[in-house]
Amino acid sequence: MMLRIRSRDGLERITIDNPNITISQLQTIIQTQLHIPIQNQTLSTNQNLLLSKTHNDLNRFTDMSNPNTPLSTLNLTHGSIIFLIYDGERRVIGPATAFSPAGSFGRKMTMDDLIAKQMRVSRQETPHCESVSFDRDCADAFQRYVNETLAFAVKRGGFMYGRVSEDGRVEVDFIYEPPQQGLEENLVIFRNPDEEKVVEAIALGLGMRKVGFIFTQTVSQDKKDFTMSNREVIQAVEFHAESGLKEWVTAVVKLEVNEEMGGAADVHFEAFQMSDVCVKLFKEGWFETEIKEEDDPKLSKMKKDVVVGVKDTKEVDNDFFLVVVKILDHQGPLSSTFPIENRNTQVTMRALKNHLDRTKSLPFVKRISDFHLLLVLARFLDLVADVPALTECVQTQTAIPEGYQILIESMADAA
C-alpha cells in the first residue's frame, strides 16, 4: 500500500506492507524511508497541520498522536495523504523508482526532480530594504498633482531616484515622470530611451540611482478589497526585475476616504518590495500577463500550478507577493518647484525664465538645484561634458562656472 506524505518539502511517497500497522510503526517507516527521526515527527490527516506556527498549534492535532492507534481506524487507503511537520533540517532523498511524465517519451524523472520543479509561494516576512525615506518636497509635488489636478480619477506613475545605504535604507530625492497614459484601472508607461538616458546621466552626476517605482491608485480602486491589483503586481514586478536592485521599492499613493469622518479624504503612501519568489516567477515566465475583464483583480494567475500552503493552484492572492517596507521622510538636497516633465502642460523655456526670476535672491547653484530644471537644460547640453560638470556643482553645492551661468541665463532670456 502506498501513502503520500505532504510536508514543507512537498509531496513524497512511502510504501507499507500491512495496512493494519500502528502509528508507531508508520513513524518507523517514515524514519527509514524519508530519513526523519521519529521524535521529530508530528502527523495528522488534517492539512491545517502545515499552517502551525507554535507547539500549542501542533497540540491541537491529536488524531495521530497515539502511537498505538491502528492505521485501519483512520480510513486511510492506497494513495491517501498524511500531513507531516518535523523539526530540524534534512536532505530530501527520493525513492529509487522513477517516473516517466509522458509514457515512453522524454527522460525519466525521479521524485527529487518532481519536488524540485514545484514552485512554492509563501509570505516573505522581511524585506531587503530596511526603510524608504521620501524627500518631502518631491513626494508633495507628486501627490499634489494627482490630488488637485487629476483628482485621483486616473492613475499616474514615476521612477524614484536617490541613494541606497550599506544597511539597506533607501532615500528618494526626486521622481522622474515618464511619458504615460493613466486610465482608471490601468497605467500605460511609454518608455523613452533617449530621455531616460538623460535622466540616468543627471542621476549619476548627482551621486544617485534609480531605486524604485511609484504609482497612484484611483478613487474607484479604494472601494475594492485588494492592496494591489493583478495588473499593478505585473507592472511593479517587471520594473523590480529589470532593476536588478535587491533594495528596489514599490510605492503606492492612494486617497483614503473615511466615511466615519463625514467622507473626509487623506492622501496615503504605502511602500512594498515585491517578494523574491514574485520576482523569480516573473523572470521565469510563470505569470499570465494578459488580464481578462472577468478576472478577479486581487488574484494573479499563473501559467502552471504553484503550491500555496498545501494547495496546488494557478491563482495566488496578490498579498502573498508584497513585503511591507517602513516609510520615513527627510529634506533632500534638491528642490521640486520647477514644472515637472510629461504632464498636461508642456514645459517651455518661459518656465525657466520664471523660475530664475523667482529665485533671484539665492546663489545660482541653489537656483538650478532641481532635477526637473536640470532635465530641461540637459536637452541642450553635452551629456558627456556639460551635464557631469553641472551636476557635480549641484551635488557639492559649489559655484557654477561663469560660462554655464551665462549660457543658462541666455537660454531663459530667449524665451
Automatic annotation (TrEMBL):
Gene Ontology annotations of biological process type? ubiquitin-dependent protein catabolic process
Q: Which domain of life is it from?
A: Eukaryota
Known SUPFAM superfamilies for this protein?
Ubiquitin-like (SSF54236)
InterPro entries for this protein: MPN, Npl4, NPL4_C, Npl4_Ub-like_dom, Ubiquitin-like_domsf
**Which GO terms of the cellular component aspect does the record hold?**
nucleus
Care to name a GO molecular-function term for this sequence?
ubiquitin binding
Alphabetical list of Pfam families matching this protein: NPL4 (PF05021), UN_NPL4 (PF11543)
Q: What is the protein name given in its UniProt record? A: Putative nuclear pore localization protein NPL4
- Species of origin reads Lupinus albus (White lupine)
